[in-house]
């Protein structure tokens, strides 16, 4: 199948948005094989390649305008994030049957870990089966020079240390380091130079003020290529899961590093993990934030909430809607 505008936009077909640069260019190289597999499974589709950062948002907006309701993101969590942001551009108008699947061709591929999707073949199989769940979508409202902006997320949003790591990964990627270990490398580099920020965080009627090392907010459970950062999160419970790490000795982080992967680090004295509806973050100095592994901005104000069950997603879990 040839890519292009001449392909017919049809409501019954899947609109596949491919980020050829995901996973250091692996997605583009594997696309031909993947499109063959989609056809083998009888999945009727047309596709477009992204040409730049943010392009998947625009492609998803265009797809909706043309009447599409079924989308597949080919790439990593960042590509999925952009597709979601396109679909929710007009949040109030989104149709009940709007459905998204992902073919995981990213570096971290963290969203699929919550959904029991093992790999590319399994993802395609699940799309063919059409097994969906209603999925909550979180959002961050934050201030920029232009005013209040809004960015949605489907996996995990991060502030402070986590976002500084993502910023470092993007910097390394721009310098040509696109390898699998770029994240771990960035994490170690950031850990040595990072200082906790002075913040005020409000959730569940509590106000936490002081030096905060990290804040992660999960709709799903994993980030950083398999770290169970929001271990209690449920993607359809209508709640955000905040994992807040107060100022902590770096040596303690190093000794407890492996506990990030099973979520048991939330038992540490410096960590709070709670479910909540809304979160407010304020700081005198602007802090970094990221959503689904995409660095977004520096801000000194962020308000977070979610839209319950607004999107259908293809899942590998047993529970279906
Ligand atoms: N054609 C393109 N050229 C360059 N960058 C692009 C292009 N299309 C999309 N992007 C950007 O590529 C970045 C990475 O995409 P994505 O997150 O899907 O892959 P990844 O980082 O390899 O995977 P993961 O997020 O799962 O670790 C995103 O910031 C996205 O905006």
Automatic annotation (TrEMBL):
Assigned keywords, A-Z: ATP-binding, Kinase, Lipid biosynthesis, Lipid metabolism, Magnesium, Metal-binding, Nucleotide-binding, Phospholipid biosynthesis, Phospholipid metabolism, Transferase
Gene3D superfamilies attached to this UniProt entry: 2.60.200.40, Probable inorganic polyphosphate/atp-NAD kinase, domain 1 (3.40.50.10330)
PANTHER family membership: LIPID KINASE YEGS, SPHINGOSINE KINASE
GO molecular function, one term: kinase activity
Protein name: Diacylglycerol kinase family lipid kinase
Cofactor entry: Mg(2+)
Pfam families (alphabetical): DAGK_cat, YegS_C
Domain of life: Bacteria
Annotated ranges, domain DAGKc: 9-143
Organism: Splendidivirga corallicola
Cited InterPro entries: ATP-NAD_kinase_N (IPR017438), Diacylglycerol/lipid_kinase (IPR005218), Diacylglycerol_kinase_cat_dom (IPR001206), Lipid_Phosphate_FormReg (IPR050187), NAD/diacylglycerol_kinase_sf (IPR016064), YegS/DAGK_C (IPR045540)
SMART domains per UniProt: DAGKc
